[in-house]
Design goal:
2 domains; four-stranded antiparallel sheet; elongated; Gyrase A, domain 2
Length: 188
C-alpha cells in the first residue's frame, strides 16, 4: 500500500507586515501619480499662457510693420511727417470726444416719462435740461436723483465726464398736470 501524506502550504497566508508594505507601495504610487498629473497640468497652463503672449507679440509686430510701411508710403509720396506730427495725431485720436455717441447714449438712458428739453455746452460743462412727470408716491427729487444715478452708472456715458451732478429742479403745472423741470451738469 502506498503512503498518503497530507500537504500543508505554510506560505499561503500573508503576514501583516507584507500587507502593510503593499498598502504603503500603493499610496506612494498614488501620490506619485497625483504629482505627475499636477506637474503636467501646470506645464500645459504655462504653455497656454506662453502661446497667448506669442500671439500678442505677433499682433504687435504686425502692427509695427504696418505702421512702418505706412510711414514709408507717406515718405515716398513726399509728405514729411515728423515723429512729433505722428504723436500729435495719436494724441488727437485718443483724446477726441464723440458727441454723437454720447447724445445717442443719453437718449437711451432717458426714461419714457422724462424728456430732454435743452442741451448747452459752456466752459467744459454739458448742461442737460429736461422735464419729468411727477408721481404721488414718489418725491420729485427721487425721480431726478434716480436719473442722475443712471447716468453715473452707465460707463459708456459717464466715462467721458469727470463729474455728473444734480443742479436743481422746480415744479410747474402745464394744462393741469404737475411737471418737474430739472437741470443736470456733466463736467468733461
Amino acid at each position: 500500500m502506498s503512503k498518503q501524506y497530507i500537504l500543508i502550504n505554510l506560505n499561503k497566508a500573508e503576514s501583516a507586515e507584507s500587507r502593510l508594505e503593499k498598502i504603503r507601495e500603493k499610496a506612494r504610487w498614488g501620490i506619485f501619480g497625483v504629482l505627475i498629473i499636477l506637474l503636467l497640468g501646470m506645464n500645459i497652463r504655462v504653455w497656454m499662457i506662453g502661446s497667448g503672449y506669442n500671439s500678442i507679440i505677433k499682433q504687435k509686430d504686425n502692427e509695427v510693420s504696418r505702421l512702418k510701411s505706412d510711414i514709408a508710403k507717406l515718405e515716398s509720396e513726399g509728405k514729411n511727417l515728423s515723429k512729433y506730427d505722428i504723436m500729435e495725431f495719436a494724441d488727437l485720436e485718443q483724446g477726441r470726444f464723440l458727441w454723437a455717441q454720447n447724445m445717442e447714449e443719453l437718449g437711451k438712458l432717458t426714461p419714457d416719462d422724462m424728456a430732454i428739453t435743452g442741451l448747452r455746452f459752456k466752459r467744459e460743462k454739458l448742461i442737460i435740461r429736461g422735464i419729468a412727470l411727477t408721481f404721488e408716491d414718489r418725491k420729485d427729487f427721487e425721480i431726478i436723483d434716480e436719473y442722475v444715478q443712471t447716468l453715473r452708472r452707465n460707463k459708456t456715458f459717464s466715462g467721458n465726464f469727470a463729474k455728473i451732478k444734480y443742479v436743481g429742479h422746480s415744479k410747474i403745472t402745464v394744462r393741469g398736470q404737475d411737471i418737474v423741470r430739472f437741470e443736470v451738469e456733466a463736467t468733461i
